Amino acid sequence: MILYPAIDIKDGKCVRLLQGRAEDMTVYGDDPALMAERWCKAGAERLHVVDLDGAFTGEGKNLPAAKRIVEAADGVPVQLGGGIRSLEDIERRFDLGIARVILGTAAISNPGLVEAAALRFPGRIVAGIDAKNGFVAVHGWVKTTHTSAVKLANQLAEAGVLECVFTDIARDGMLEGVSIDATREMVEKGNLKVIASGGVSSLEDLEKCRQIGCSGAIVGKAMYDGRIDIAEAIRVMKTEG
Questions:
Q1: In what helix (H) or strand (E) does residue 194 lie, and over which residues does it extend?
Q2: 181 near 140, Cβ under 8 Å?
Q3: Hey, which end of the chain has fewer CB within 10 Å, N or C?
Q4: Given 8, 53, 89, 205, which residue is catalytic?
Q5: Using CA atoms, how far apart are residues 78 and 65, in angstroms rounded to an integer?
Q6: Please, are residues 31 and 14 in contact by the beta-carbon 8 Å criterion?
Q7: 205 is catalytic
Q8: Which of 53, 89, 130, 205 is catalytic?
Q9: 70-129: per-residue pLDDT in tens?
């Protein structure tokens, strides 16, 4: 299982939100690229980056920060989500050196884009499936749809997507542990590889994710607050199980 240190960007800064709420924000640094360098030096094999301004508004004003992250990562693959609404948006991110893009809101609002992108960029399109009480949330989690998370996963698998980032919004940033039941259901019924996200607070949480068959797990607040040492976590994931 691959660990993905999370770097969330808002107004060019490295931040973390509670349950996706912009008003509940903690700033962890003025330069996200320095965070990227820090996690890569600790042994990170991938980075998970979210443009929060893009997620909320659809505008890619943090692309310069994303480019600096790619440069600081020095060859470590970076996946980026937030505000990606067209093939042109996708290409702009790939031109920056981004390895994979994450389509969230577009997966609901424009399924044709997902299918076209998966065909044009095989293996480089990741679905971002964010759920609230089992239903998909979009536009930076401010709107909940009537589509179930598992149903969307199956639709995306048929469109050619191979992997998703699955987030239970109620757990995100709360350090209360991963929503194992919901994540297991996604692993077993969604027909996609699943990167668990939201609530990871300990090595035990990571081990649970591995046991239910997740392909990866995203670590955010617990890493920034020192609850999880990323180098130790990577070592454990490589040596156990």
A1: strand 193-197
A2: no
A3: C
A4: 8
A5: 13
A6: yes
A7: no
A8: 130
A9: 999 999 999 999 989 999 999 999 999 999 999 988 888 899 999 999 999 999 999 999
